[in-house]
Design brief:
The structure is a single chain. Helices cover 38% and strands 20% of the residues. It has helices at 52-58, 71-82, 92-106, 118-125, 133-139, 150-168, 173-179, and strands at 5-12, 20-29, 32-42, 69-70, 87-89, 114-117, 185-186. Strands 4-3-2-1-5-6-7 form a 7-stranded mixed β-sheet, with helices on both faces. β2 and β3 (32-42) form a beta hairpin. The longest helix has 19 residues, at 150-168.
Length: 200
């Protein structure tokens, strides 16, 4: 099987995982980057306050997302871009929590994406003083990118996984995960409780 996956990165408006305000997506096919995109998101109501700290990190303000798609409106675009791919993110637990918590905040069905973490992979494949994305991406040969721009971060993450796969001789995402001794996990989606009817 070829090395196919979609790298993803979210930026958030505040400390709530539900407060997605930007997403970046990069598609990899047979170990090559073939498409990339990204857009701003209106965070869900109740999670839409922009903290100064977050804005200082990514540069996005409340004014920037006025008129942007809501979480509900753009969720299908994320799913459409990713298709059946395993999602990959640097510190994937955070990005998967954004998807899950934003869906909970809006009442949307959370897609049961499978995912792998480039941070976990990097810790097994590289010997570095820091495993923050800029350092890991530089080791993978992708330096000088706009860190905390969602699309740029997703692109950096994709380069890390492609380089790690090359170093491990892995032909697909499952082989890469196995070679790095990390798991391909899945977002745990709560099922609706069964409804029983008593017959009088």
């Amino acid at each position: 099987m070829p090395l196919d996956f979609t790298a993803i990165d979210f930026e958030t408006a505040n400390s709530s995982n539900a407060s997605a305000c930007a997403v970046g997506l990069v598609r990899v096919r047979d170990g090559e980057i073939v498409a990339k995109t990204g857009w701003l998101i209106q965070p869900p109501p109740g999670h839409d306050r922009f903290f100064e700290l977050n804005t200082r990190i990514h540069g996005i303000t409340a004014e920037d997302v006025v008129g942007a798609a809501t979480w509900t409106a753009q969720l299908g675009a994320i799913s459409g871009f990713a298709g059946d791919d395993v999602l990959v993110a640097h510190n994937a637990g955070f990005d998967m929590a954004v998807i899950k918590r934003a869906c909970e905040a809006t009442g949307d069905d959370c897609p049961p994406f499978r995912y792998a973490c480039s941070l976990q992979v990097a810790r097994k494949v590289y010997q570095l003083e820091s495993y923050r994305l800029p350092f890991v991406a530089a080791e993978a040969g992708f330096a000088e990118f706009a860190h905390h721009n969602a699309t740029a971060d997703a692109l950096a993450c994709a380069h890390v996984m492609i380089d790690a796969a090359r170093r491990l001789g892995a032909d697909d995402i499952e082989a890469l995960a196995a070679g790095a001794a990390v798991r391909v996990s899945q977002i745990a989606v709560a099922e609706a409780p069964a409804v029983s009817f008593a017959i009088a």
